[in-house]
Amino acid sequence: MIDTHAHIVCKELYERKEEVIAQAKEAGVSKILIICTSIQEAKLAIALAKEDTMFDVAVGFHPCDLLDVQADDWLMLEEFLQEKEVVALGEIGLDYHWQTVEKDIQKEGFIRQIQLANKVQKPILIHMREATQDTMAILKEYAQYGGIIHCFSGSVETAKEAIALGMYISVGGPLTFKNARGLPEVVAQLPITSLFIETDCPYLTPHPHRGKQNEPKYLPYTLARLCEIKQMSEEDVKVQMRKNYEKLFSSLS
User: Fold this and answer.
1) How far is the C-alpha of 65 from the C-alpha of 63, rounded, in Å?
2) Could you report the per-residue pLDDT of 150-187, keeping only the tens digit for each?
3) Residue 216, preceding bond cis, omega within 30 degrees?
4) Are strands 124-129 and 31-36 parallel, antiparallel or unpaired?
5) At 208, is the secondary structure helix, strand, or coil?
6) Closest C-alpha among 149, 153, 176 to residue 162
7) Residue 253: which pLDDT band, with cuts at 50, 70 and 90?
8) Three-class SS string for 11-40?
9) pLDDT tens-digit readout, 199-239
């Protein structure tokens, strides 16, 4: 199994990283894409990835954090993208839910980071919350090397539009929630060749562990639900998602 979106260098999980990593491996997770939301997290993640090849790293500035980003941070981001352990730029995107950062500032930061990803020829990891129209418009104009829309919660039409742009759709714990309606229907209509699963840990813990801190060890619950929806065996899904991952990041090998 591949966890394509895990914040394991956040304070809550990094403090017990040995246990978190050991339990992930025991659960059958063979690859974790670590998502970094700060320069300090990026340093920790790259160090982990240099020690253990099960880790890949993504570095970028979340739309809700853009007001805290300094000029030196942009320089460090570009430096980190030269590291072979850093396979993607993210998570980046637009978040109109919290309204803590003006839309124009978010768009500017989003475009700037896509252009940086294009420069180093790496995929992007997209955060899209209540900003579908603007996100898709920017992706159409600027994105060149594909990527993943993480924790997808949009429509089938949006998903197919994203896939046509070279994006993959990743789903997490919400797929397992008892009140989930739209997301299972979306997943049912998408090709397995364009899907990933993730934890987004420490957030969005899947059923039946909702209320607990999420970890990669809970990824099998999302996998099982996806297999049920797609009417496929777990082994077939894992094999295809490994192929998806290798295809997305093939330009880096």
Assistant:
1) 5
2) 999 999 999 999 999 999 999 999 999 999 989 999 99
3) no
4) unpaired
5) coil
6) 149
7) low
8) HHHHCCHHHHHHHHHHCCCCEEEEEECCHH
9) 999 999 999 999 999 999 999 999 999 999 999 999 999 99
At the top level of CATH, which class does the domain 2-252 belong to? alpha beta
Distance of CA 227 to the CA centre of its chain: 20
The DSSP H or E segment spanning 48 is: helix 39-51
Order the strands of the 55-59 sheet from edge to edge.
2-6, 31-36, 55-59, 86-95, 124-129, 147-149, 167-171, 195-197
What distance in Å separates the CA atoms of residue 150 and residue 170, rounded to the nearest whole number? 5
Long-range CB contacts (within 8 A, 24+) of 64-72: 64/95, 64/98, 64/100, 64/101, 65/37, 65/38, 66/101, 66/105, 66/106, 66/109, 67/100, 67/101, 67/105, 69/109
Q: Are 176 and 167 in contact (CB under 8 A)?
A: no
List the chain domain ranges: 2-252
- What kind and span of H or E run contains 111? helix 103-120
Q: What is the pLDDT of residues 115-155, one digit of tens each?
A: 999 999 999 999 999 999 999 999 999 999 999 999 999 99
